Amino acid sequence: MERWTRDSSAKRPRNTVHTRSVGSVSWDFGAIADVPAIAFAEDLIEAYPEAKVVLVERDLVEWYRSFNNIVIEHAWRPVMRLFAYLRPWFVGPIGSTHRRWIVGWIKAGSREQMRKLARPTFREHYELVRKVTPHERFCIPSSAKVLIQQ
Q: For the chain, how many structural domains are there in total?
């Protein structure tokens, strides 16, 4: 979590952090997904040239409904900030990291800004991943292949 917090602090809107920093991450994971990792898609794709990229694009309306209810609503609740303050060893690092990617990647400083910028950021993310990922590095899950063939 400390690595994500530090790198999220270095993240500037729509720019990359130093690939060397992201590429030096040595976790025991076979994959990473979701936030805050998506804010570093370009960095990670460059840092790990042998890695496969799975890009599962959801329906924008359904994604936004879920994102608003689960992320946006909770990210700006004063009670969540209070809870993070009172339980810094548990909630604090997670809340801090999420706040940083929200401000650095989405460029949102409020709930209203996040709602306004979420959809364009969603679209830009998928466009960016398609642009910077060589075709042969995409890995399409078998269930998605069935849907594509139909």
A: 1
